[in-house]
Task: structure prediction
Amino acid sequence: MPSELESNVRNAFEKLAKALSDASELIVETRYVVVESSAQEDLDQSRLVAKTVIQIDGDHHTTIPMRKLESEQLVVDEDLLEIHRESVASAIDYRMQALETLIDLVKTRFR
Amino acid sequence: MSLVAFQFALPGAGTPTDALGLWQPAIVAEEISFSAAPSADIALFRVDLPPDPGQAYLALAQSSAQLQSVEIALGQAAPRLERFVQGAALSGVESVDFAAGAPAFAAPERELWLWLGSATDQPSFAPGLDLRSVWNIAGGQAAAFFEQVGQALSHFAWVESATDGQLVGRTTVGWTGDQTTFWRDPLLPGQVANHTRCLQLALATRAAWLRLTVTVAQGATRLAALASTAPILALPAAWKFVQELLAQYRNLQEIQ
Result:
């Protein structure tokens, strides 16, 4: 394998490995934006509805979406929470896949 | 605009190609009309689905099946290359005599044999074929793909799903898996599930690119030992072999 190509890919792997080794937490945010019309929406005006932070030592905390009933009682917005749960599961899955890929590469003889 | 579009872009890095055949290149400035235009530090995946839920489901199911066939093909590539190397080595002692005739290989191994034979400077081999130029093309494709994978790996993934051209959701995924997802409100039934599947497709594609890179690199290393007179041609040979294998599985999937 020509050295230029090898170093190109190897550098990318090293960046990923360093990012993973430096990462002490996994952050997942869910935001939404209300669409007023069919015009292009501005996602930068989105509002945070849920956030989960998972730390490497196993601690985690989640900010969950609530909505107020007419009776002023606060209840969990189950629909938004379910959407957020999907995102958290996806993020955990990605982190695990990235680690597995790196482990596979360590096993690989690249020369 | 077609009803279904799977698009990929690396802003600021020219027109990319998906060696797996799932994603089409997108020109960011023209094709992405959402606000907050992607910066040059992201790898953009965008799926535009038809408004009909059944058609949208079918499009995603077909793409998932295509990616699965790619994973199966990549799983086959390394052992088949290894068997090829062992079989070819048996026909020679110090070095392989390609002109002596190929062992009983199946395609695409037969073509690989032909290719490696062309690298041994045996003029009678494959007369009438300009294999040198084909080598150059394959080598260029492999080099471009490797560079692209390096860039895609070191960029955030920016995954967007849209229905009939209108943005539904956007997820940015950092190197470490940190995610932020934007949703429009209101959402129609099925749109959350569709966006999640688009996200899975994009990340699985990135993983498959990595696997393809490793497979070709390993294969090139093994072939270089076999074609010792022209080791530099091992990379295009491995690239071509894996591409042909992928094409075979794609054709098989289309028949099914």
Notes: The mean pLDDT of chain A is 76. Chain A touches chain B through 49 residues (CB under 8 Å). The helical segments of chain A are 3-22, 78-107.
